[in-house]
């Protein structure tokens, strides 16, 4: 891999994109002979597209962002013949964990890349009409807590107070969602259903909020994007499923942390990533 053939995408709003972290990343790239010729600072600059990379002769795109921006990057370069190197530049870094091992730091990943200890892969995603999730997809009124997380990120105290109140009302009083096909789990519905893609299919988990303690536990889990810390039950490991809103209202989603919506009944399935990603974990 020639250093002249690599671009870097960063996002200052992502969890790990401090100035110090970016300086450390640049030093690590140089130390391992993986320098880049251009850095795209999203969202101030537009994400590169497949045609941009092809026109510039880029063969490797290094992405140091959170899962949401990473999702947008992969969509933008869909069908490109090069490879994307995912680095842990966000808060949760779920896709980076899948590719390189959980909590593997940037320098260790770059060291593996420099000595050729990697392979291109196209990991499974959770797909629906609203988009593809590479790290995880959430369905239900509990997704309202994502707005509170954004207020926390922006240190918006007024927005945090208002958003928390609205999220509380939506999660406890909003129409729940259930598994319609196959009709498994609680048919009275859940405030949140999580779909986690893997090479074995979609892991489906339903989150129940039956008392105040569980509600608070789950709310904080959603805020920190550690959904599995909340009380939940495993519903299945499936290649295709249908989720519906119990009150026939639109489905609210978070696709890799970004909000979206669908009609009251929607199908979710496994799909292949549309571009090569570089994996360095032995357990991938």
Automatic annotation (TrEMBL):
The keyword Kinase applies. Keywords: Kinase, Transferase. It holds the Pfam family DAGK_cat. One of its GO terms (molecular function) is kinase activity. It comes from the Bacteria. InterPro entries: ATP-NAD_kinase_N, Diacylglycerol_kinase_cat_dom, NAD/diacylglycerol_kinase_sf. Residues 1-134 form the DAGKc domain. This is Diacylglycerol kinase family enzyme. It comes from Qipengyuania citrea. The lineage of its organism: Bacteria, Pseudomonadati, Pseudomonadota, Alphaproteobacteria, Sphingomonadales.
